[in-house]
Predict the 3D structure of the following.
Amino acid sequence: MYKALYRKYRPMTFDDVVSQSHITTTLKNQLISGKTAHAYLFTGSRGTGKTTCARILAKALNCLDPIDGNPCLKCEICRDADEGALSDIIEIDAASNNGVDDVRDLRDGAVYTAERCRYRVYIIDEVHMLSKEAFNALLKIMEEPPPHVKFILATTEIHKVLPTILSRCQRYDFHRILPEDITKRLLYVAEKENISLDRDAAELIAKTADGGMRDALSLLDQCIAFSENVTADVVSSAAGIAGRGPVFDILEAAADGNAGKAISVIASLYDMSKDMQKLCGELTEQLRNIMLAKAVPENVGLLVCTPDELERIKALTDKMSLSDIMSKLEKLQDANEKIARTASKRVELEMCMLKLCSAAPDKQTDHSEAELLSKIDSLERRIAELSSGTVRKAPQKREYYAPDPQPQYDPPTDRPTAKPLSDLSKMKPEDFVKEERWQDILEKFAEVCPSVNGALAGSYAVKGGGYMLIYTPSSFFLSLLKNKENAAKLREAVRCVTGETYSLKAKCTAVRSEQDDSGRLREIIKKAQDNNIPVE
């Protein structure tokens, strides 16, 4: 009977496990020294070796003749364990045995000593599927287990495991297997099976597996059934993925704003029964590579691609700005979510492609550069005028009336028409808002409008004639107070603290000189030139 490759080539010792040396080395050292824990928790994404290491650990704990922490694979304990005929190593699938009664049965059986082995080992796979009651039933025996009992828990969703369980286990996090390690393993398996496997095909399988060795071997099994000579094209056809060429053709069309070409490539892939959601995922993956190549070109190790793909990625980074790449990436991610929920997957992807191509990024980039140069020229002319003294000096004080809310009723005819106080020399002490009262107003204002409140640092206020006049050293506050919403929030803060409603007026006490303006404009231009950003 044919045996699937991922079962046939499952590691039998710790030394065979790929890319998890930080775990296997620790476990071997514990076994050699005899200082093993009573409970282990293995967590990580699928296909990274959690259940495999649990089985190896269970064998090594009971092996009659262990070799450097590894099971010998020759004694009767190891042989029976590999054949699943050892009653002292019990595997439980928590996905289908997740009730409190199942855990009670486990607890009742754990009190009995092992029949043939040193330890009775319970391997609970997908432990996060246990119900809350089942977890609680497991707690006591995991906290104080009999000396002959060991627990090994495995899960892909560690956040669903109760903290009380986590605190009773030694936790080991399994990493995603590196693509190059998966590639080596695939080539090794192909050699053992006398299969013709191109390196490009192995790299494509490794990338598609997303860090899972089981997924990679299952895909290789599928490719072998498709063709005895496994090439990159065979992998693309067998797995229903687009492969390298079409994905980059679509991205190049999006970069050039050529919607017709992009839609045409998608149509040809659809006719070949390619999965539109997988295609969207591949586009997202390659666009991520382009984003990283654009943002951190010196760190090529962050990219998940082959050397041939790297050349096309670099070419695409020259065609798009970083903001354009990120915008396209957001659109693809939104489309990927919608494709998963709709029956018209092709239509959704085509709509997304039209959005990617409609931006015309080359023209947009040229326009923004020209606009930036124009603004810089305008700023330079402004500086020249300031230096020559042809521009009127900025006023020492500027004032602004905050907009009163539009009345929802007809105002009374006897409404007071008094003007606000503005001359400080004519004000009486009682006209000034007490400092502690003004701070209360600012604190109340900060609760609803913290960003604007910062512009009132160092301010004070006077009141009179139904008005409140705010003196502030920040000219920026005058522009903020023009916003009706900001004015209404400040007016409400005043009302809450004082119990009275005032019309607001603001006056800037700061004095700016031509020299200050000139220096500030020079600083703005320098920052614009250094950072390549538009400046108003």
